[in-house]
Amino acid sequence: MNMYEFIKDADMVLVGIGEKFQEKFENINVVDEKNVTVLEDYKKRKYLNACKKNEVDQAYEKLEKLLEGKNYFVVTLCTDDKIFKTNIKPERIVAPCGSYSYLQCEEVCTEEIYSIKDYEDILEAQKEPLCPKCGKKLVMNHIGAKKYSEEGYLKKWNLYMKWLQGSLNKKIRVIELGVGMKYPTVIRWPFEKVTFINNHAKFMRVHEQLFQLTEDIREKGISIKENPVNFLRNQIV
């Protein structure tokens, strides 16, 4: 399926990026995946900043070209910030699962988040930074935190909601790329609902295993059983 043809006549394009695009950090040794320290997370951030471009980066570059000149919004479940290194407009990307760019209080004594750049000297010295409000440890502001502060993405989420409100009578093309069932309330179910209620909507779902469409949107949808990263990389723009 040619994605360019799919979105060519669209008034609006909504894209969901799933877990299949998330960096796996296979070269990072973590003692306990359920209790990752900020220092272990910082190793991941440094790895992301140092690693060479791979297939996912190539896929994002194709997506960037496909969306050029379009009225779009991208919702991503990834926390690795790779999509923010493209020319896709950052104000049109929302990452509700957080990222490796900000820190938060481990106890969320405040919803405030802090740029990791302000604490890099401490982290480079292999010390754990402390919350300036209560003195507890700071941790990465992503979904892996025991208590996740959602402040980091809410402003963008509100922009996304306002954007969606303007889509009801528009030709919107809804695209899911590698979205599974880990957080279905963020992308999968809302995207299906957007498609169902809009008579002018068309839907595309790309996934290796969870590619099936619900009965409600079957007539509006295209189901593609394929690796979503390779699918994007192979697109002709």
Strand % is 15-25%
Q: Widest sheet: strand order? A: 3-2-1-7-8-9
Please give the share of residues in helix. Answer: 25-40%
The number of E-state strands comes to 9
Q: What's the alpha carbon Rg, rounded to whole Å?
A: 19 Å
- Helix/strand order: HEHHEEEEHEHEHEEH
Number of helices: 7
- Helix-strand makeup class: alpha/beta
The profile of the biggest β sheet is: 6 strands, parallel
Shape: globular
Low-confidence stretches: none
- Give the distance, in angstroms, between the N- and C-terminal Cα atoms: 12 Å
State mean pLDDT (0 to 100 scale): 93
Write up this protein.
The protein has about 240 residues and is of the alpha/beta class. The chain contains 7 helices and 9 strands; from the N terminus they run H-E-H-H-E-E-E-E-H-E-H-E-H-E-E-H. The two termini are about 10 Å apart.
